[in-house]
What does this fold into?
Amino acid sequence: MNSRALITMMALVMGLAALAGCSDNSNELNRLVCEVETVNEGAPLISAALNLGNDGVSGGGDDFVPIDMVPVIFRSRAYNSTMNIPDDSTYSSFIITGYDLAWNSSDPNAPATLSDHNITGALLSAKVPIDDDIVVGVLVAPLEMKNAGWFQAILGGAPTFTATATFTFKGHVSGTDHLVEIPAGLMVNFIGAVVE
Ligand SMILES: [Ca+2]
It folds into this structure.
């Protein structure tokens, strides 16, 4: 699905949600659940301060700072197998609206300022239809993190370290405004440079 179609669909869903009004009926709220299936295809992330480019060495005009975005796969399903939720019903999709990201590390080489890079209230818009997988790209290490003194120090030879990124994805079942939080995690290894 292209982005224009997705935006159109989102607008349609939000319009329908507005028409339907809000419901606090917990039975309705529990009809659909959304889960994270994988983060970064189940693999840890190697986050580098610099990519050395095709020539494999520093310089040469092809070095670049890699921005780390990982694929996250969401899946929606009926709360239990005895429920039958029609594909086109009001409550047949889960809407992802955003996420928080918190950094933690017990690695002695991790900087004390790692949690300065926590992300709160990041926006994300994705519709996860029932019994469907949706892949979303989530920003883990933005440019300002790559420019941090400790990250540049690793590039200069300081020790690498490992940390955990704990995500709290946020959203709601279509047709409701009841906030649901979905936890997930990712191991991240911070290193100096990688080669394409
Ligand atoms: Ca290079």
